[in-house]
Amino acid sequence: MATATDTAARGTAERGAGHWRRALGAGLLAGIVAALLLTLVMALLRTALGISSTAEAIPDRVAPTLTIAAFFALFDRFGGYNGLKQFGVGAVLLGQFAVGTLGGLLYAWVVERGRMRDPERPRRFGLDRPGLLFLAAVIASAWVATLIGLRPVLGTNYRGLAPRPATIVTALGLLVTYASYGAALVLTHRLLTSPAPLRRPAPVGDRLLGRRAFLALGAGALLGLASGDLIRRLYQRATFSYDGTQYRGAGVQPITPNDRFYSVTKNVVDPDVARAVWGLEIGGLVERPRTYRFDDLAALPAIEQETTLMCISNGVGAGLMSNARWTGVPLGTLLAAAGPRPGVVEVKLHAADGYTDTFPIAKALEATTLLAFAMNGAPLPERHGYPVRAIVPGLYGEKNVKWITRVELVDHDAQGFYEQQGWGPNFVIPNRSRIDEPDFGRPLPFGTPVRLRGIAFCGDRGVARVEVSPDDGQTWREARLDYPGTRLSWALWSFEWRPPQPGEYRLTVRATDRDGGVQPPDERGTVPQGATGYHRVTARVVWKRWAAHRPRQGAPRPTIRRHIVTTRTPWNGKRALVTGGAGLIGSHLADLLLREGWRVRILDNLEPQTHRAGKPAWIPAAAEFAAADIRDRGAVVAALRGSMSSSTRRPTAGTCRS
């Protein structure tokens, strides 16, 4: 039997276990409230001041360190770049919340251990000094570790601050965020663990106070709703709806409308730059560093220049490219005013979103390299770099940095955001071309000229000639340049093609630049220096009536004259009636239909037959065949003639319905 001593010991242990459950429960709830407040403060700073949140900064810091293979493997795993972005942001937010909650548990554990060691010692304001020291050490360590870990992206500011002031603002914003977490944790824990006024010690009572726990839960709910609302607003501005927008197909215009210009961005939410905040630093290896406000830049002599931009990820025949008229100041003008020092090798551009990229100093000094502030006569749209972006003709789009805030001259081969992954080292756009029209997903009618249309682009070398091959590159015919463009832009071409007979054709296109360079036929993928090779499409040419009237599953019965005649049976399969079967056109059409798996009824002439009213009528003499029965046109004709009646026939006229 258990002694009184054993019972007392067991009761003491149970009370001790219950005490720790209550203490850690208070810490858990306080950690949740503090983590929600941290998220809210971070979202507020992102919305109001453009300070990069850790949910954006950590993925931006990690992405350049990945290899291209790892980068695309993540694309495949998460359903593309947008899926990867959402995963990155969501993972950081969840991880941040989990760490904040764990911080509450640790804080409660430290506080209770101190109280249990010295329960009689008075504590000012009811707060435990060891607990406060522990929390301060944790916050300071987290802040310093964040500054060190995110150092390459601390200059990010989505409202447009230049990198140096942006770094200071970001560091202070992180400190405010972490301090708010600490304050919320201490106050919420103090509220939950004592019924006494704040000036008195705060031992954990026998139970969590229901009213105070309810207040803490309510505060957490309000914080969660507020932070959720801000995150929702940011999500509504997210790039998911337009990132990867292409411009191709029917109706491509020489100058791309701003709202249809192709778009590629690394961001979840693009910068919302305030012109009053924005500044452009010219620094690095220069004699006279300077910062330009927007009005300063716009007051300089500007030029208008038509230039085509294209993404390095643009596959052969794809549409990640567009053309616009840009207005801006030559970058060389600003560099000359700053006075480059000897030994400069490259220009490194910094953007408001933390993106960086580089190109040679010689390219920067070319008269066509611009800092543009207008696009097609209007201020730059937000998604295309408002208020100022770089235009670097002849180099892939990633070198044409958007939302630019700093131009830095360096004496070494610096690497930009994507260059660190292994892209390059050659970023010069090779000659390329594509076929946009017509829609090759449908058969083309034989006997009607086919108007082929497309674009050609040769970087900053201009398009001199476009050639089309109807036989997969065996022979070439020169196309017409409907819009020859400039030396820095694409050209729009057209070609009237007359197929010699029905069948399948492999159409190919190539471009020659104004320096005599011919588009390379060698095929390579987009990684790591952009795709090359000819754009090829398969054109299927069929008889005109078949191309125009081929029935679809469940479609209404069409009225078709001369070569295809419908029955009264609904179209529930691949069936066709072909008149003139013994003739060249009818038999060839029947052959094409049979090759496609249609069941064909071939009509030659009409046979006289007495109608019920006693008047003569004409009905077709027919033979029905399946694809397995007939292999070529000659067999169609022979089988048809063998099946026809020897009675008097007269030719089919008009539309025949049976």
Please tell me about this protein's structure:
This protein has 658 residues and is α+β, with helices and mostly antiparallel strands. Strand 22 (599-610) and strand 23 form a beta hairpin. Helix content is 35%, strand content 21%. Helix 3 (68-78) crosses helix 4.
Short overview:
The protein is of the alpha+beta class.
The overall pLDDT average reads 82
* Residue runs with pLDDT of under 50 for 5 or more positions: 6-15, 195-208, 546-587, 602-658
Tally of DSSP helical segments: 13
Spatial arrangement of strands, main beta sheet = 2-1-10-5-6
Shape: elongated
Strand coverage percent: 15-25%
Number of strand elements? 23
How big is the Rg? 37 Å
- Structure classification: alpha+beta
Kindly state the percentage of residues in helix: 25-40%
Give the terminus-to-terminus CA distance.
Answer: 104 Å
- Major sheet summary line: 5 strands, mixed
Notable traits:
disordered C terminus; alpha+beta; five-stranded mixed β-sheet; 658 residues
How are the secondary structure elements laid out?
Layout: H1 4-49, H2 54-62, H3 68-78, H4 81-117, H5 129-149, H6 163-193, H7 210-236, E1 280-284, E2 290-292, H8 294-298, E3 303-310, E4 321-330, H9 331-338, E5 346-351, E6 356-360, H10 361-364, E7 370-375, E8 378-379, E9 389-391, E10 404-410, E11 432-437, E12 444-445, E13 450-457, E14 463-469, E15 477-478, E16 480-483, E17 491-497, E18 503-513, E19 535-542, H11 544-549, E20 564-565, E21 575-578, H12 584-595, E22 599-610, E23 616-625, H13 633-643
Parallel strand pairs: 1-10, 12-19, 21-22
Antiparallel strand pairs: 1-2, 3-4, 4-7, 5-6, 5-10, 7-8, 7-9, 11-13, 13-17, 14-15, 14-18, 16-17, 18-19, 20-21, 22-23
Helix pairs in contact: 1-4, 1-6, 1-7, 2-4, 3-4, 4-5, 5-6, 12-13
